[in-house]
User: What shape does this take?
Amino acid sequence: MKRRIDHLVVKIAERCNLNCSYCYMYNHEDKSYLRRPRYMSDEIFDSMLERARRYCLARPGLRMGIIFHGGEPLLAGRARVQRFVERTRAVLGEMLDGIGLQTNATLIDERWATLLKHMNVKVGVSLDGDAVNHDRYRKDLRGRGSHAAAVRGLERLQSAGALGGVIAVVDPDGDGRATYRYFRSLGVRKMNFLFPDVSHDNKRRLYGQYGSTPIGDFLIQVFDEWYREDDPEIELKVFSSLLSAMLGGKAGTEAFGNPLLSFLVIETDGGIHANDALRVCEEDIGESGLSVVHHDFDDLRIGMPLVYRLAEEGIPLCATCGACPEVYVCGGGNLAHRFSRANGFNNESVWCADILKLIGHMRHSTAIHATP
Ligand code: SF4
Ligand code: SF4
Assistant: This one.
């Protein structure tokens, strides 16, 4: 079934003040950030907005979400962010489906928090857990942990009422139960946990030292704690997605269900790119070869075939996934995690065993034994 692009991930800053060891922008296969401008210009931003406006106008009723991203988007500066937000509202008007910003929060001071609240920008904070877990991977450019600054920023956002939620990458050395409790002790009510982004070509190098299901084991601990708390106001995306799919609905996320692409990434130079996580696979794999300066979002068919296929046709699952009893729930997992240089995307997820274990545990706990 065809799906429309309904949000844009806009890279307003190409560089970052941190250097997280797992970062797909800087520490993986793709190094294309080196040849792009550090910041998105007003001209590129305006071109992007005009393409978004045309795309929505051609589809009455469609509304487009805009998410400021990076690198670290706050490096673009207050004046530029404020200008971009104002232009977005002016150009898209009723066709705008909200503005978000994903940040490491270390640069959030009172002025940023107040400004983001004032502009009604929902802010997502990347935080991996307590200081020990977070600082294991999320260090600044001089190798110092970033946890204290990130939590200070998060608390400022909470005080201002601008915090959307927290996103954590699962730390296989961490304790899922303690990490969930830590987030709750910070007053976080909306969170998500991401499977680490790796392909079949680099998982062994980066995560080979762990047991057979380190991510599944961590998430099972988180699930038990979340399920035990039993508070419908605590949103935890990875679990609500899987539960929705287990009940016969859509996962509603790129992490499961093999969906068509619902978003595009716009680079600082205006380049149109697919799913960011594909950067862990190969240099330039997610490039469309198109730019908002010259192309509409309906021109994907004249660019590199992969982005068009992701948005319009989908990528078939491998035979193993096709025969899997949980295929309607998992759908092969995140696309990037299916990749190998030998077979392209014709593989099960590198986290297949973890996903199966997690789904099995969730089924057992909730007594949802079959997917309609
Ligand atoms: S804060 Fe985000 S963009 Fe910056 S290095 Fe860490 S993961 Fe990469
Ligand atoms: S990745 Fe594994 S769990 Fe998911 S559908 Fe494929 S075989 Fe099943």
Observations:
- The pocket of iron/sulfur cluster (ligand 2) is lined by residues 320-321, 324, 326-327, 330, 332-333, 348-349, 352, 355-356 (CB under 6 Å).
- The first helix runs from residue 42 to 57.
